[in-house]
Amino acid sequence: KQGDRKQEFRHPDIKNILAAHLGATRLYVFDYSRSKIFAFRLSDGTFDFVFGEDRLNNVTRILPGPADTLLLADSGDTEIKVFSEDGIMSTKFGHKGMDLPHEIGYLRDMTWHKNQLAILDSKRSMIHILSPNGSFVRNIEIKTSARRVDFAKIQSDPNGFLMVLDGRNAKVLVVDDEGKVTFQFGSQGSRDE
Question: What is the pLDDT of residues 26-63, one digit of tens each?
Fold first, then answer.
C-alpha cells in the first residue's frame, strides 16, 4: 500500500509463498509448492515473468545483490543462487557438508551484515561470513548456554549485531561478531485463551 493506493499481486498458480523481495521495479515471490519465482511489475501490479524452474528447491530468503542481482538462499540445496533481476541465473555458491571452514551443514537463512553475507547454519549453530561474491571470510560460532536450540532466522541490526531467532526456546539472541550472546529477549507463550 502506498498512501491511499492499494495494490494486489495475483497469479493463479501461486499456492505457498515462502519468501519475497520488493525490488525497485518488481516484487519477487518464491512459491514453495511450484519451486519457482514469480515476478510482478510494481508500476501496475501485473505478472511479468517466472524463473528458476528446475533450479530452485526451498528458497528461504531473497536479498538484493551487487550489480542488480538477486541472491537466493536455497536451503534445500544448501546453496546461494545468483540471478539477474530479469531471472537469468549467473552463478551459485555454498557447499553442503560438515568439513570446516567452508562447508555448510544446513543453510537456514542469510542476511547482509557489514557488507558481507551472513549465512545461518542451523546444523552447527554457526554463522558463515562470505564476501558478496561467495568467497569464505570466516565462521562465527554462536555461543549460547541453551542445551538444545533451533536457529531459524537471522537479521543484521543497525548497531552492528546479528539477531538470531531460536524457535525452540522462543528467543531472539543478539550476537556480536565473535559469537557472544550479548542480549536475548522473548519467552514461551501460553495457550491460555
Answer: 999 999 999 999 999 999 999 999 999 989 999 999 99
- Among residues 76, 73, 77, 136, which one has the least CA distance to residue 109? 73
Q: How far apart are CA 38 and CA 19, in angstroms?
A: 11
What are the CB-based long-range contacts (under 8 Å, 24+) for 160-168? 160/114, 162/111, 162/113, 162/118, 162/127, 164/120, 164/127
Q: Using CA atoms, how far apart are residues 122 and 119, in angstroms rounded to an integer?
A: 9
99 CB-near residues (< 8 Å, 6+ apart): none
Write out the three cell numbers for 168: 525452540
**Do 164 and 150 touch, CB atoms closer than 8 A?**
no
Instruction: Describe the strand order of the beta sheet including 26-31 as a list of residue ranges.
Output: 17-22, 26-31, 36-41, 47-51
CA distance 100 to 104: 8
C-alpha 57/C-alpha 2 separation (Å) is 32
Quick one: which H or E segment has residue 48?
strand 47-51
- Residues 150 and 166: beta-carbon distance below 8 Å: yes
Most distant pair of Cα atoms in the chain: their distance: 53
pLDDT digits (tens, 9 = 90+) for 75-92: 999 999 999 999 999 999
